[in-house]
Design brief:
Keywords: Aminotransferase, Pyridoxal phosphate, Transferase. One of its GO terms (molecular function) is ornithine aminotransferase activity. Pathway: Amino-acid biosynthesis; L-proline biosynthesis; L-glutamate 5-semialdehyde from L-ornithine: step 1/1. The chain has 411 residues and is α/β, with parallel strands linked by helices. It folds into two domains: 142 residues, Aspartate Aminotransferase, domain 1; 246 residues, Type I PLP-dependent aspartate aminotransferase-like (Major domain) (Aspartate Aminotransferase, domain 2, 3-Layer(aba) Sandwich), CATH 3.40.640.10. It is 37% helix and 16% strand. Helix 4 packs parallel to helix 11 and helix 12 runs parallel beside helix 14. Pyridoxal-5'-phosphate binds next to helix 5. The site of pyridoxal-5'-phosphate has 16 residues, from helix 5.
């Protein structure tokens, strides 16, 4: 038998990055920072360097690292029951479903684990609803999606992506999707047919660079879909649960969807928890055995999910996102070196003047100065600090970004 040193024997950034290179798979290109500890809006690396986390796990960490109410819920549940599978009821899931339905103003909750699974679930439910309720011919159902979308990484979900790096080499793809330009209600209207069962949209496109659609777009889509007996599915996995300054970003436009997908922050930064929530008559098309997940709705996830719902029920985090976001947006718009600042709530996409460098260059320089952020693509950097940041910490973020842009323009 051969023995290898456990990973814990290596402790420095250099050693751990090398170890990742030796045994990992290069499906990510992480910044050369190795994190070992987190609390609130701050993380510490293996060399003891502290960073302000301005990414917050792409909004999975809306409540910061190790929020005490969330870790307490997880610890308590770890000592009682963690997994049953859905062959049996567990004593945590019904309460979580009640809490999430109440929080989102919806009727039914289908629990899953990751975001991509929630999207897959919503697509399957929409198709089944199309055949069983709307009366679409078997096999003919179509779903309209938007250009620039990001809904996850499974084969079906990348089937309707227009990002070559998400698709190339992974076909053949799942048929049945029609893609129209994001933000163009007329194009969407033209794409609806009698076979269309659903429109799937992000109310604000996160991965595309925090792209906010034109005013009135979501409302127009809601009217068009209602008129054609087409389900509106809003993917709120990144935009929801406080990030945009509301529990659901769609509510900011006065739009109620038939189904919502939720994920990321629903797991409190502790466990993967996702869900499809919405109309009972739509989710109710599923019959026993037709869809499921070994881990979906497990008691540990449900306990954490309920604790997340309790945090959001006060409205405190949604208000913080609005207030801090207004401050962050105003300060970002004063910075030289940016060609665009887009955002909603505490969620911004900034475009760096290409003469200064790429989004990646800015993120590398930010990390050297103690702020962690992530480029989306090209010149765009996404800023989504945890909703627990203080105004002073937002100022640290903007001041550091200002120094980095200043340095890059001086070179
Ligand atoms: C992150 C994300 C997903 C996928 O979630 P995973 O948990 O990574 O599978 C889907 N939709 C949107 C809008 C997202 O931001």
């Amino acid at each position: 038998m051969t023995t290898t040193a456990p990973a814990t024997a290596t402790t420095t950034t250099g050693e751990l990055v090398a170890l990742a290179g030796a045994h990992g798979v290069a499906n990510y290109a992480p910044l050369p920072v190795v994190l070992a500890h987190g609390e609130g809006a701050w993380v510490t690396d293996v060399d003891g360097v502290r960073y302000l986390d301005a990414l917050a796990g792409y909004s999975a960490l809306n409540f910061g690292h190790r929020h005490p109410a969330l870790t307490a819920a997880a610890h308590a549940q770890l000592d009682r029951l963690t997994l049953t599978a859905r062959a049996f009821h567990n004593d945590r899931l019904p309460g979580f479903q009640r809490d999430l339905a109440a929080l989102t103003g919806t009727e039914a909750v289908l629990p899953m684990n990751t975001g991509a699974e929630a999207v897959e679930s919503a697509l399957k439910v929409a198709r089944a609803w199309g055949y069983r309720v709307k009366g679409v011919r078997p096999g003919a159902a179509r779903i309209v999606v938007a250009g620039g979308n990001f809904h996850g990484r499974t084969t079906t979900v990348v089937s309707f992506s227009d990002d070559p790096s998400a698709r190339d080499g992974f076909g053949p793809f799942t048929p049945g999707f029609d893609r129209v330009p994001y933000g163009d209600a007329d194009a969407l209207a033209a794409a609806l047919t009698d076979d269309t069962v659903a429109v799937l949209l992000e109310p604000v496109q996160g991965e595309a660079g925090v792209v906010v659609p034109p005013a009135g777009y979501l409302r127009a889509v809601r009217e068009l879909t209602a008129a054609r007996d087409v389900l509106l599915v809003l993917d709120e996995i990144q935009s929801g649960l406080g990030r945009a300054g509301a529990t659901l970003c769609g509510d900011l436009s006065g739009v109620r969807a038939d189904l919502y997908t939720l994920g990321k922050a629903l797991g409190g930064g502790i466990v993967p928890v996702s869900a499809v929530v919405g109309r009972r008559d739509v989710l109710g098309v599923l019959r026993p055995g037709e869809h499921g997940s070994t881990f979906g709705g497990n008691p540990l996830s449900a306990a954490v999910g309920s604790a997340v719902c309790a945090l959001l029920a006060t409205g405190e985090y949604q208000a913080a996102a609005r207030d801090l976001g207004a401050h962050l947006g105003a300060r970002l718009r004063e910075l030289p070196g940016l060609t665009a600042v887009r955002g909603v709530g505490l969620w911004f996409g900034i475009d760096v003047d290409p003469r200064l460098g790429t989004g990646r260059d800015v993120c590398v320089a930010l990390a050297r100065r103690g702020v962690l952020a992530k480029e989306t693509h090209g010149v765009t950097v996404r800023l989504s600090p945890p909703l627990v940041v203080t105004r002073d910490e937002v100022d640290v973020l903007v001041d550091t970004l200002g120094s980095v842009l200043g340095d890059l323009s001086g070179e």
